[in-house]
Specification:
There is one protein chain. This protein has about 60 residues and is of the alpha+beta class. It has one domain: Ribosomal protein L30/L7 (Ribosomal Protein L30, Chain: A). The chain is built from two helices and three strands, in the order E-H-E-H-E. Strands 2-1-3 form a three-stranded antiparallel β-sheet, with no helix packed on it. Helix 1 packs across helix 2. The longest helix is centred in the middle third of the chain and has 10 residues. It starts with 7 loop residues before the first strand and ends with a strand. The relative contact order is 0.35.
Length: about 60
């Protein structure tokens, strides 16, 4: 039998990091988001969900 593919999240930065708190900027760097409209695919796990929660007002999240 084939393995089930792990769920992933597509995260897109939709607002600028200017004016964000220092820890929020660090979180966006950890997610791999550098410029507006940059997109990254991350695994769907509690760690990633926590990072997204911290910057939820700056990003758009879609399930892949």
């Amino acid at each position: 039998m084939a393995k089930a593919k792990a769920k992933e999240l597509k995260i897109t930065l939709v607002k600028s990091k200017i004016g964000a708190l220092k820890d929020q900027k660090a979180t966006m760097e950890a997610l791999g988001l550098h410029k507006i409209n940059s997109t990254t695919v991350q695994p769907d796990n509690p760690c990633t969900r926590g990072k997204i929660f911290k910057v939820k007002h700056l990003v758009k999240v879609e399930e892949v």
